[in-house]
Amino acid sequence: MPSSGTIAEEAALLGTMPSDSMDDIELKNIQLQFPCSRSLSRGDSTMQEEVVETDRGTLVVAVQGARNKPAILTYHDLGLNYLSSFQAFFNYIDMRALLENFCVYHVNAPGQEEGAPTLPEDYIYPTMDELSNQLSFVLTHFGLKQFIGFGVGAGANILARFALNHPDRVSALCLINCVSTQAGWIEWGYQKLNSRHLRSKGMTQGVLDYLMWHHFGRNTEERNHDLVQVYKSYFERNVNPTNLALFIDSYVRRTDLNIHREVDPSKKKETTLKMPVMNITGSLSPHADDTVTFNGRLDPANSSWMKISDCGMVLEEQPAKVSEAFRLFLQGEGYAIHFKRPTPC
């Protein structure tokens, strides 16, 4: 946009000078409505990181919001951490309004946090069950009795495991692209190959392509070229390949959640997740069928399945739809949410 000085120069060339009223057309007061800037690095001073000691090493947990409010606990997917998975979504205008009513605890899987050093060679990475058990240490550290779980992919599976073992600690779950079964042969083969390459060669083109497919599905660049470039650059430059290989190994060795929908009402609560579950996927996500399987194993009385159109990575591509669904879900569970949309950043 030209400055007022540029306008004056152009007007002089035309033989006229702008009047005072023209000069006051407040080029100073025009507020361009750009979206909040997209960043995959630490830049939000409202989040405070703390190191939590567990029986399987330390975890980095970032806290966002006033700690005297109800807790939302997040867990990220493969190749990501709390910054690259949740920062943009939880800073989205509607989510910022929602978070005035909650405190968010963002959990990073071991070695996946921003700038994490390479884990020692003799370090045995926790299994998926052990990763879920680590959340008990997080709750103790922050003095939390209950939380609302918000997880994506591998993180959704970890939260579901914790909820099965500790149903009294989880009041509700919002799970995105949650896989409830063990890995099939095709996934196992691809992921073992990815893990081997990450250890020996770092972030190869093959691993990069797989991660992009895992998060976005196919034909990603046709939908959002800029977003694709942001994540490609992030995977190439910011991910510790050795640590990611360990996380992938743990995920591909996951066991079945061993839940199923029970017809007999007297046994219903013994065979599946007891708390309300919102099960979300994108229509272009490669995990959409897995969420259908997961949905078929949940109690229809306290679960809902939502497929969002025209996206694979729902938090990045359709944040408005996810935040609205999440708000209605929480209100339906009795949370008194005073929703006042803030001004755009």
From TrEMBL:
Question: Source organism's superkingdom?
Answer: Eukaryota
- One short Pfam family name for this protein? Ndr
The UniProt entry's sequence similarity note says:
Belongs to the NDRG family.
The protein depicted here goes by the name: Protein NDRG3
